[in-house]
Write a structure and sequence with these properties.
Helix content: under 10%
Order of helices and strands: EHHEEEEEEEEEEEEEEEEEEEEEEE
CATH class: Mainly Beta
Number of helices: 2
Largest sheet: 7 strands, mixed
Strand content: 35-45%
Shape: globular
């Protein structure tokens, strides 16, 4: 078996307030997602979301089930969202070979028996994925950057000029509860997701990439009136409970993937907080 997994339990916001640096990182930061020829994943008890990474180097890697799922196949009761964060490569879904370019997405629905990730013919291969429980089977669909719902927000003057590509949302592809997108900060911009917000109806995970190895992002989390921070490096992810804000500022511009699971597929369903009210 080429899958390594761990479980993260849900944290009460009152307990969260007492956490120091080490405990914050232990419960919310996900490191080492890409290991040679293997699947690394974290099963969270926030809406049962799975956060994972695959790094096929010199052999193909199959997405396998693991004991926690109590299922014959990984997707027997789940849906899957994959985003390619490295060189163009291919994924085989129940025998169909699908080309996935850099930052393109692939949705795989409930009931699929086999997903295989292949090494890129040129360059590095890294697939990031989220998976959530599913109640209905929707068809597999690749989403190119041209097909994504794309918006530009912010400004260079406020250090938050960014392009948001909503690749796996209900306006683009049918899903049960999973939503994912890619946000790129433009050179000179470092802030993401300001004004900060929460959404009690769904949790979120942030995955940071295209961040220079000698730079970091300071990711903010916690209730708006009692925030904490975690310093995050390239190819690392942070879990965000429904009661927590999720925002960040980097020492360089960067790109991140946001993934959400929960009961509401309305992207704009969020409770915003004025910047000057944060503590």
């Amino acid at each position: 078996m080429n899958t390594t997994h761990s479980t993260r339990h849900a944290i009460h916001p009152e307990d969260f307030k007492s956490y120091g640096t080490e405990k914050l990182r232990e419960h919310f930061l996900i490191e080492n997602l890409f290991q040679k020829n293997s699947v690394q994943l974290v099963y969270t008890l926030y809406d049962r979301l799975i956060v994972g990474g695959v790094n096929p180097v010199d052999q193909s890697v199959k997405l396998e089930t693991f004991p926690t799922l109590r299922s014959e196949n990984f997707l027997d009761r789940r849906e899957l969202g994959i985003i390619n964060v490295a060189s163009p490569s291919t994924v085989t879904v129940d025998g169909e070979v699908i080309e996935v370019g850099t930052k393109e997405a692939l949705y795989v629905g409930k009931g699929v028996k086999e997903v295989i990730f292949h090494p890129a013919p040129n360059g590095e291969t890294r697939f990031y994925f989220n998976s959530a429980p599913a109640h209905q089977a929707y068809p597999t669909k690749k989403v190119s950057l041209a097909e994504a719902e794309t918006v530009e927000l912010g400004s260079l003057e406020n250090s938050n000029h960014r392009t948001i590509r909503k690749v796996l949302i209900n306006a683009v592809v049918d899903t049960c509860q999973l939503q994912m997108g890619v946000t790129e900060l433009q050179p000179g911009s470092v802030w993401n997701t300001m004004p900060a917000h929460t959404h009690d109806r769904r949790m979120e995970a942030y995955f940071y990439f295209e961040l220079p190895e000698d730079q970091v992002v300071c990711h903010f989390l916690g209730e708006p009136q009692e925030t904490r921070h975690i310093f995050v490096k390239n190819y690392e992810a942070v879990l965000s409970p429904p009661w927590s804000i999720h925002s960040g500022a980097g020492t360089s511009n960067y790109t991140f993937i946001w993934g959400m699971a929960g009961e509401n597929l309305d992207y704009n369903d969020m409770d915003k907080f004025p910047i000057t009210d944060l503590k």
